Recover the amino acids of this structure.
């Protein structure tokens, strides 16, 4: 009985720390996005799965197709000044833009738009 109580206590403690840790990470990432937009309102960034990405460069179709990618979602919201950055939100990319994550280098994500492809890199926290 005592072992079961200790096990349940440890399990609930680990779960609580996991939830609090994710919330803090998301808040820090959102703050980082807000800071980037305040410093340069032309920043080309987006936030997805609690990770902030910033534009590196435009790439052509040949370069994009040479990278092994997997579907990573799409942009669902556009950033508006004085609004909190949320997952799926982009400062420049239009709603519906498809995103692809590099399998070999997951810190790189590519957008696919009518005008071409853009490479983004995750912005490390801190």
């Amino acid at each position: 009985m005592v072992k079961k109580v200790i096990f349940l206590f440890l399990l609930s403690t680990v779960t609580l720390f996991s939830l609090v840790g994710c919330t803090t990470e998301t808040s820090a990432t959102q703050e980082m996005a807000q800071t980037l937009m305040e410093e340069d309102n032309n920043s080309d960034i987006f936030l997805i799965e609690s990770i902030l990405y910033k534009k590196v460069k435009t790439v052509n179709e040949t370069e994009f197709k040479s990278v092994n990618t997997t579907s990573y979602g799409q942009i669902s919201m556009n950033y508006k000044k004085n609004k909190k950055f949320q997952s799926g939100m982009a400062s420049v990319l239009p709603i519906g833009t498809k995103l692809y994550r590099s399998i070999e280098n997951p810190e790189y994500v590519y957008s696919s738009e009518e005008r071409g492809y853009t490479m983004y890199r995750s912005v490390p926290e801190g």
Remarks:
- DSSP finds two helices and eight strands in the chain.
- Helices lie at 2-39, 61-65.
